[in-house]
Amino acid sequence: MVEFDEVRQLIGEILQLGNRVQKFTPDTPLLGSIPEFDSMAVVTLINAVEERFDIMIADDEISAETFETVGKIYMFIRDKVMAGT
């Protein structure tokens, strides 16, 4: 099972946010709200998620909405892991 804290920590590692990530809640906005979260960070995060959770993310599954908040990323990863894809 994927835990919210695990996803939050991964985001913090990718964006090099240090302790700032501890304040993130499921409603914390990302895309367009955190300067470190640019297009390269999105690609890096996708690669890290695929590796860490042993899933494949198809190009057509990626949308701005998926990366809107920390909670949306968490739910996306959780659903992918539960589906086994």
Structure, explained:
Helix 1 (4-15) crosses helix 2 and helix 1 crosses helix 3. The chain has a single domain (4-83), classed as ACP-like (Non-ribosomal Peptide Synthetase Peptidyl Carrier Protein, Chain A, Orthogonal Bundle), CATH 1.10.1200. The relative contact order is 0.21. It is built from three helices and no strands. The mean pLDDT is 94. It is mostly helical and 85 residues long. It is globular.
Would you identify the CATH architecture? Answer: Orthogonal Bundle
Indicate the mean pLDDT. Answer: 94
| Largest sheet entry | none
Which structural category fits the helices and strands?
Answer: mainly alpha
- CATH class (first level) name: Mainly Alpha
Query: What's the helix count?
Result: 3
Briefly note the CATH topology name. Answer: Non-ribosomal Peptide Synthetase Peptidyl Carrier Protein, Chain A
Radius of gyration: 12 Å
Shape: globular
What is the CATH superfamily classification?
ACP-like
**Hey, roughly how much beta strand do the residues contain?**
under 5%
- Poorly predicted ranges (pLDDT <50, ≥5 residues)? none
Distance between the termini: 14 Å
Q: How many domains would you count in the coordinates? A: 1
Task: Please outline what is shown here.
The chain is mainly α and 85 residues long. The protein has helices at 4-15, 39-53, 70-83.
Task: Jot down its keywords.
85 residues, single chain, mainly alpha, Non-ribosomal Peptide Synthetase Peptidyl Carrier Protein, Chain A
